[in-house]
Amino acid sequence: MKKSILRWELGGIAFIVVLGTLLHFAFEWSGRCIPVGAIAAVNESVWEHLKLGFWPALVFAAWEYGRFGKSTNNFRLAKTVGIYVIPITIVVLYYAYTAILGHGLLMVDIAIFVVAVAVGQLVSYRLLIASPLPKRLNRFAPIALAVLGILFVLFTFYPPQFPLFRDPVSGGYGIVG
């Protein structure tokens, strides 16, 4: 079972990276369709790029749940923690390297996205194969995912005026242009 779960988690890396990459362009491809903006990047801010990992990882987790979610330990917690690790890793690595260099580099940003997705999936794997954790943690996990999903949608349309939400290209927040 461990090998099968590991294969799924590794396959999830590819799925999330490919779907996340498509979501980077989906808002423009849709003709700037507002509902698409809820899940796709609407500008070049760090916040909008975090959605590129969240929504595909959530879709992949739902797919996995249908395959083996009921037969593994800690499924809801594992997927929630793994999904939270992705944006946290992106934010930490992005701001660390741009603080050192003084600017961003597209290839480094792309590498950070891939690394963050891989770290999230591997954290998820470790929790999936771990001994059962307290059931209350698994019950709390969907609430934590819902909160993050709501924040991604809400802050797309009503972004706080903080650097995380600022589009470096236009200087604006949320849907710009």
Give the helices and strands, then pairings.
Blueprint: H1 2-29, H2 34-37, H3 46-68, H4 75-101, H5 106-128, H6 135-157
Question: Total domains, how many?
Answer: 1
Global structural class: mainly alpha
Shape: globular
Q: Which band does the percent of strand residues land in?
A: under 5%
Distance between the termini: 50 Å
Q: Which oligomerization state do the chains in this entry correspond to?
A: single chain
In round numbers, the mean pLDDT is 95
Count of beta strands: 0
Residue share in helix = over 70%
Q: Please tally the helical runs, counting DSSP H or I stretches of 4 or more residues.
A: 6
Question: What profile does the largest beta sheet have?
Answer: none
* Whole-angstrom Rg: 16 Å
Low-confidence stretches: none
Topology as a string of helices (H) and strands (E): HHHHHH
Descriptive overview:
The protein is mostly helical and about 180 residues long. The protein has one domain. Helices cover about 70% and strands about 0% of the residues. It is built from 6 helices and no strands. Helix 4 packs across helix 6. The radius of gyration is 16 Å and the shape is globular. The termini are far apart. The model has no long low-confidence stretch (mean pLDDT about 95).
